[in-house]
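Consider the following assembly input.
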Amino acid sequence: RKEVEQDPGPFNVPEGATVAFNCTYSNSASQSFFWYRQDCRKEPKLLMSVYSSGNEDGRFTAQLNRASQYISLLIRDSKLSDSATYLCVVTTPTDSWGKLQFGAGTQVVVTP
Amino acid sequence: DTGVSQNPRHKITKRGQNVTFRCDPISEHNRLYWYRQTLGQGPEFLTYFQNEAQLEKSRLLSDRFSAERPKGSFSTLEIQRTEQGDSAMYLCASSAPGAAEKLFFGSGTQLSVL
């Protein structure tokens, strides 16, 4: 079983709509959680951290559910420029701080 | 350009040859990471350095792979006796002191082993 699992998608979203997707992690000791964004043929870039109480950054909302061991990302008022692959990232205290575990990504396609 | 720089951008080699990639991190970043990514997968951790010390290396990493960061600045990743399964995008990232989990990635080196 992979340590970090994501629905690969693609999630086809009309412009202006809302899309949400989850990521599950297997290690209950995991402590830090992030969403990275990766455009086609580009490097990953940090989108946002995920805090226990949930957090927003503009149109993006991240939630953490420790009991069920998943994090979520919601995108409101989708823009064409939101089309990308969203990578879920988890760190655990037993790992070196350098060893972030990446999921395989969820592809989002925003259509006009 | 103050971002993470990787060279070369593309490398095509024949099976059995050795290849070396270079990464120049953001200058004030003390941590440097190497990841590998194949199509449809997320980045897979290979190794990381704090300054010049290599603190962790993936158990999945073959002995054919070696990385160095001799002066705590740039790093090199060498693959000896390349195999077709080594074909992937090799990504380097760096992070600043106190923000170890906020990785800044370079554009990567795309390796194709024929």
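Chain A is about 0% helix and 55% strand. Ask yourself how this observation constrains the way the partners meet.
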